[in-house]
Amino acid sequence: MSYGPDYYARSADELGWGAGHRPDAFKLEVLRRHVVGARIADVACGPGVYAAALAGDGRQIVGVDFSAALLKQGRRPGWLPVAASGMSLPLRDGWADTTCLLSVLEHVDDAALLREATRVTSRRLVIQVPLEEPRLLAESGLLFSHWSDRSHLRTYSRPSLEQLLSNAGWRMAEFIPAYPRDLQEAFVRGIEAPEVVRNAVRALLKPLRGLSPRPAAEAFVVAEPR
Predict the structure, then answer these.
(1) What is the pTM of this model?
(2) pLDDT at residue 1 above 50?
(3) CA distance 180 to 145
(4) Cβ count near 79 (within 10 Å)
(5) Residue 27 in this model has a pLDDT that exceeds 60
(6) In angstroms, how far is CA 111 from the centroid of its own chain?
(7) Whether pLDDT at 178 is above 80
(8) Is residue 4's pLDDT more than 90?
(9) Tell me, what DSSP letter sits at residue 175?
(10) 125-157 pLDDT, tens digit each
(11) Rounded CA gap, 81 and 206, in Å?
């Protein structure tokens, strides 16, 4: 199956990146804390929810996405939408102080996209990726929500991200785990039984809720040139 611009435009609302979605508070906090400089590139920006949220304070923000339909859905003041491939960004070398690669590396040739982002970025990358599943869950077939988007090609670990960045000439300045997984709920949802049975299991497990580990589902990474 081909996952081209039409797929992403068609699936935007279902998978959480549609124009009607409000910015996630934690994600927006990370961006506001770590995006630096006056010129920002948001690669695979979709309808530009975060490009618009970062606008202001004299910033020039270019949002790039290969889906013109998605860009049209979210056209807002304060940033420039550009329909183009992230593999060939219409920006001059070193133009961006910060380039955001939010939930995109897992969809594409990540090394190639990083090379292109490196070409246009002078100071910082801010990256968001899905993390590897805990082994117990993967072996049990209990996989998390990012796999509902079937265009994902991979997940990441901190070491794999460090290596990927190093190969492109970057160092990891900060690793920020995000969105803790609810392992109890994953277990309950994996039970093949009527919902009334699942609810009974939830009630039985509730006293143990605070004891269950909650590994992060995703991570934000701040990278700077080596």
Answers:
(1) 0.82
(2) no
(3) 12
(4) 24
(5) yes
(6) 16
(7) yes
(8) no
(9) E
(10) 999 999 987 665 555 555 554 455 667 889 999
(11) 47
Read off the pLDDT band of 18 (50, 70, 90): low
Q: What CA–CA distance (Å, rounded) separates 146 from 41? A: 24
Query: Reduced to 3 states, what is the DSSP secondary structure of residue 77?
Result: coil
The percentage of the chain sitting over the pLDDT mark of 90, rounded to a whole number, equals 58
Q: Please work out, in degrees rounded to the nearest 5, the angle formed at the alpha carbon of residue 108 by the alpha carbons of 127 and 140.
A: 85
User: For residues 202 and 129, is the Cβ–Cβ distance under 8 A?
Assistant: no
How many percent of the chain have pLDDT more than 70? Answer: 79
Which one has a higher pLDDT value, 189 or 195? 195
Take residue 191 and report the two structure tokens written for it: 């039970």
Q: For residue 148, give the 3-state DSSP assignment.
A: helix
For residue 73, what are its two tokens? Answer: 């859905």
Going along the chain from its start, the domains and CATH numbers come out as: 5-181+215-225 (3.40.50.150)
31-70 core/surface letters (b: 16 or more CB in 10 A; e: else): beebbeeebbbbbbbbbbbbbbbbbeeebbbbbbbbbeeb
SS3 84: coil
Say which DSSP state 145 is in. G
Upper half-sphere CA count for residue 96 (Cβ side, 13 Å) = 26
- In single-letter form, the type of residue at position 168 comes to A
Neighbour-count burial of 99, counting CB atoms closer than 10 A to its CB (0-12 exposed, 13-18 middle, 19+ buried): buried
DSSP for 6-43? HHHHHHHHHHT-STTPPPPHHHHHHHHHH--SSEEEEE
CB 21 within 8 A of CB 84: no
